[in-house]
Amino acid sequence: MNPRRIVVRCDSRLDHVELLARAVRGILAPAGMAPQDCARVELALVEAANNCIRHAYGLQAGHPLEVTCTLDDDRLTVEVSDEGTPMPERPKPLLDFDPTDIANLPTGGMGLFLIRSVMDQVEYTSVNGRNTLAMTKRLAA
User: Fold this and answer.
1) DSSP 3-state assignment of 6?
2) Is the dihedral of CA 37, 114, 56, 19 positive or negative?
3) DSSP letter string, 64-131
4) Which region holds residue 129: left if phi is over 0, alpha if psi is between -120 and 50, else beta?
5) Separation of alpha carbons 112 and 48, rounded Å
6) CA-CA distance, 41 to 24, in Å (whole number)?
7) pTM for this structure?
8) Residues 61-85: pLDDT tens digits?
9) Which residues of 68-82 are buried (b: 16+ CB within 10 A; e: fewer)?
10) CA-based nearest residue to 63, from 12, 127, 126
């Protein structure tokens, strides 16, 4: 099968992230992806889009946010792209907290950890002013 691709563009507003998630969910379910994998991809997309809006654009509306979904025979790749401030280089995120200490649970900084936890492959690039987080999920055989 030839890869199938769809591109969704929106403004850099947090209230648009739900629309992106619904659009991607609408693509995945009919494509035969298992419901738990659809939920994982949707979580990764929401975290990535929120990170773009919060960090690359500093919560400023009016900037482009683009999501490209490519469905191949054996995998789905979701690319979230922006033209904001590039992500600084940092080590692979780890969560270091006591989950039983509810008063001191982290309120942020878990997005990349979650994305890496639910996707099979994650790669970030920043080229010519365009930042892209490519997230891949293998499809069940």
Assistant:
1) strand
2) positive
3) EEEEEEEE-SSEEEEEEEESSSPPPP-PPP---S-TT-GGG--SSS-HHHHHHHHSSEEEEEEETTEE
4) left
5) 8
6) 9
7) 0.85
8) 999 999 999 988 889 999 999 999 9
9) bbbbeeeebbbbbbb
10) 12
Question: What's the CA angle centered on 49, arms 46 and 55, to 5 degrees?
Answer: 130
Burial 41-52 (b: 16+ CB within 10 A, else e): bbbbbbbbbebb
- Residues recorded for the chain: 141
Q: How far apart are CA 18 and CA 77, in angstroms?
A: 19
Degrees (nearest 5) of the Cα angle 116, 121, 127?
95
Residue 89 is which amino acid? E
Return the structure tokens found at 27.
């693509």
100-125: pLDDT as tens digits: 655 654 555 567 888 998 999 999 99
CA 5 from centroid of its chain's CA atoms = 16
The CA distance from 10 to 49, in Å, is 10
